[in-house]
Amino acid sequence: MARVIASAAVSLDGFVADTGDAVGPLFDWYDNGPVEVFGTDPDRPFRVSQASADYINAIWPKVGAVVIGRRLFDLTNGWNGVPAVGDHVFVVTHERPTDWPFPDAPFTFVNGIEEAVVRAKAHARDRYVSVTAGNLTGQALAAGLVDEIAYNLVPVLFGSGVRFFGEYAGPQVLLEDPTVVQGDRVTHLHYHLR
Fold this sequence. Notes:
Elements: E1 4-11, E2 15-17, E3 35-38, E4 45-48, H1 50-59, E5 63-69, H2 70-76, E6 89-92, E7 107-110, H3 113-124, E8 128-132, H4 135-142, E9 148-154, E10 162-163, E11 179-182, E12 187-192
Parallel strand pairs: 1-8, 1-9, 5-6, 5-8, 6-7
Antiparallel strand pairs: 2-10, 3-4, 9-12, 11-12
Protein name: Dihydrofolate reductase
GO molecular function, one term: 5-amino-6-(5-phosphoribosylamino)uracil reductase activity
Domain Bacterial bifunctional deaminase-reductase C-terminal: 4-180
């Protein structure tokens, strides 16, 4: 059965974007190295360090489905209908877009995090489901739907913005010791929940 990973690049003080939804230096490591890696889109290469490439290549090809919120969908325009990773995207929203120009793209719009994860796991089968950070991750964690956390720690302080776990107000969660991979301007911390 699919495992659910909450994943994002995050500042040292726990933010995945600033108050204006800009990621600033959080994504610099995606283009600061000699090794090309690809998600789903062959026209969207990333150039990272060898350590980051090894880490990414161990995870991204195993992602079958992604769960995102409507906010990220709107900010990225759904990556113009091509998932960043995985082969299907489940968008949590109360209002389906009516004018999105990619009606045949592999995107499904659902009403809640539980429904999104159930449908994403059914689609992914024995592959991973990736949940994007922010309020969605907090909701998934509170509902007991997260198995692993991929915390790509970037050495920057934002001071305020969008938190990795959103407004998480669930129970205390214990994690196993992380797998640590040191990239260039990023430290990949991969945790399994106890």
